[in-house]
Amino acid sequence: MDTTNTETPVDSDEKPVMDGAVSTPAEDGAVSTTAEDGAEVTEAPADVEEEAAEAELASRSQAKARSSVVASGAAGLVALGLALASVTGTWLGTIMSEREQLIGQISAQSHPTANQIALEFGTPWHTTEVFNGVFALVALLVAAVVLISQTGVDRPASATVPWIRAVAWGALILGVIGLVVAGLMYFDVFTALPHVPAAATSSAPTG
């Protein structure tokens, strides 16, 4: 008895499904797979995963940019405060000046009149200007760092804020002024130390 094998044609658009699982493509590109037990498992395509990774990277970049803005702004304000203090004077410089003045008064009793003036007036004056110059120099360094960080080539636009650059430039200008004034005052360019005339010294009673 002859038997004829009848083969059912398979449509080329249909894909074989293994183990009773049925795969259904979704509209957004995700593949929804239905298993034998009726559970539906959705597999996200590679494009969706890449977009999620890019979004997370962008979020981290924005958070880093915000932190950089805060740090740069704080540094600019600190530089401006130091520069202003170098021009108007500092509490620390005043205290050290008064200390040097007291030391000069103590030691001036055993020195000539000219040396007494230098000890009681000149040394405290120069001490004040030294501290003013140090504050101005620190302000210049901090302001320069802020300006360099704000003008970086690879710096994102979200991390560059105009007011930070304005504050840093103000601190830089005030720092230069404070440093120049401190140097001129230290070297007695604006005004020299008081001196006792020679005639007054020679006519002073010797006791």
What do you see in this structure?
This protein has 207 residues and is mainly alpha-helical. It has a domain at 69-193. It has five helices and three strands; from the N terminus they run βββααααα. The protein has a three-stranded antiparallel beta sheet, with no helix packed on it. α1 (46-88) packs antiparallel against α3 (113-150).
Which terms summarize this structure?
about 210 residues, mainly alpha, 5 helices, 3 strands, about 60% helix, transmembrane, membrane, transmembrane helix
Reported for the largest beta sheet, the result is: 3 strands, antiparallel
What's the helical proportion of residues? 55-70%
Side by side, the strands of the main sheet go 1-2-3
The dominant shape is rod-shaped
Helical region count? 5
As a whole number of angstroms, the C-alpha radius of gyration is 40 Å
Number of strands: 3
Secondary-structure element pattern, one letter each: EEEHHHHH
Question: How far apart are the termini?
Answer: 158 Å
Strand content: 5-15%
Summing up helix and strand content along with how strands pair, one would put the structural category as mainly alpha
- Name the poorly predicted regions: 12-18
Look at the structure and give the mean pLDDT. Answer: 74
In oligomeric terms, what are we looking at? Answer: single chain
Keywords: Membrane, Transmembrane, Transmembrane helix
Strand and helix layout:
Layout: E1 22-25, E2 31-34, E3 40-43, H1 46-88, H2 91-107, H3 113-150, H4 162-186, H5 198-202
Helix pairs in contact: 1-3, 1-4, 2-3, 3-4
Tell me briefly what this model is.
With 207 residues, the protein is mainly alpha-helical. The chain contains 5 helices and 3 strands.
